Amino acid sequence: MDTFKSLVVILMxxxxxxxxxxxxxxxxxxxxxxxxxxxxAVGMGISVIFVMLVATxxxxxxxxxxxxxxxxxxxxxxVFILVIATLVQFIxxxxxxxIPSLHKSLGVYLPLxxxxxxxxxxxxxxxTDGYTFLESMVSSLGCGLxxxxxxxxxxxxxxxxxxxxxxxxxxxxxVTLIAASFISLAFFGFAGIVxxxxx
Length: 199
Prior knowledge:
Elements: H1 2-17, H2 28-33, H3 38-67, H4 76-98, H5 100-106, H6 109-114, H7 117-128, H8 133-163, H9 173-187
C-alpha cells in the first residue's frame, strides 16, 4: 500500500505541482507555438506523453547498467539527447510505414519533440531524484499528462483571447505571455494538496 501511495504522490506531483511547463518552464517553445488550435495541442500532448514514456524506458537502464557501471555518468546529457533523437526518428519511420494516417495527423509534431527540452528534463530528473524504474515511468506519465493539461488549458485560453478586444499594445506575443504567466501562477496553488493527500 505504501508503494501505491508513493506512486500516486509522484503522479499527482508531476501533473500539478512540478508541471514541467508551468512550474519548471521546460518545453515552452511548443507550449507557445503549438497551442493556437485545440487539435494541434492534443496531438502534441499525446505525442509528448508517448515519447516521454519510451525515452524513460530506454534511458533509465542505459544510465544504471551502462553509464554508471563504466564510469561514464558525465556523458549522461549527450547520451540522453542522442537516445531521444534516435527514438523520435524510429517512431516517425515506424508510423510512416505502418500507420500512415496517424503519421499524417501528427505531421510536424514528432520532429518537434526531438528539440523539446521537457523530454530531456524528465529523463534526467528521474535519475537525479533517485527513482526506481517503476517510479520513473509513473513520473514520466505524470509529466506527460501535465504537459497535455497545460497545452489544453492554454489552447482554450488563447481561443478566448483571439475573440476578445485586446488593446493594440498587448496584441500578439505580449498578451500570450501574460496569459501563460497567469496559468503558471494558478498552478502554484496546488503546492500543498499532494502533501496532504494521504494525511
